[in-house]
Amino acid sequence: MNREQLLLIDSANLKAINKTNWTKKNLFVFSTSIQPKRIVQQENGNLFVAIGHCIMEYNYVTKSASLITGFIDQNGFHDGSLPEARFDTPREILILPSNKLLVADRANNRIRLIDLGWNVSFSICSGVSSTRDGNISYCGVVCPLALLAVNDTVYVGQNGAIRAVQGEIIIIIINNQCLHCVYELMVNHRVFEIET
């Protein structure tokens, strides 16, 4: 995609709009019944797409989409390897450094970290629908809808509040396999509500 184009989700179609003459062109049809909820562009021009209950990657050059994790028409929850991970209505994708994504997994009440390099997914926050503050194994979020990164803080837009996640997230890898995805709590790693 070039800077002279805008992306548009029109029903289940991904379209490019030329900003010079405002003509539309179909790029890809994801499904006849499931509409993408969020698209974000990578530095290489490819797109990550939250659609149904999965995350897909759209290759702008080949005009093809491939499944990264989850199932487009099957919801659920499971952390672990990307082929086995399950999501329930992911709504937002945030691209992080080091080949990682943060996903607002709305109906599971979780923020999920996807490590594309190690091919794993794990949860930040407990999955309990609550506004509990605290460390990442205890805190809660309620139907997260939006993510925004500013410096070392990720802001989470959820039903009725804006929350913040601070600190670093670490996955311990043993023999190139995530035997147990562990997030290590840093001294300042906590989730808290922002006064609005």
Which short descriptors sum up this protein?
196 residues; mainly beta; Thrombin, subunit H; 2 domains; five-stranded antiparallel sheet; four-stranded antiparallel sheet; 16 strands; 0% helix; 46% strand
Task: Summarize the structure in words.
- The strands form four sheets. This protein has a five-stranded antiparallel β-sheet with strand order 8-12-11-10-9, with no helix packed on it. It has a four-stranded antiparallel β-sheet with strand order 4-5-6-7, with no helix packed on it.
- Strand 4 and strand 5 form a beta hairpin.
- The protein contains no helices and 16 strands.
- It is globular and about 50 Å long.
- It folds into two domains: 1-74; 79-196, Thrombin, subunit H (Beta Barrel).
- By secondary structure, the chain is an all-beta fold.
- Helices cover 0% and strands 46% of the residues.
- The protein starts with a strand and ends with a strand.
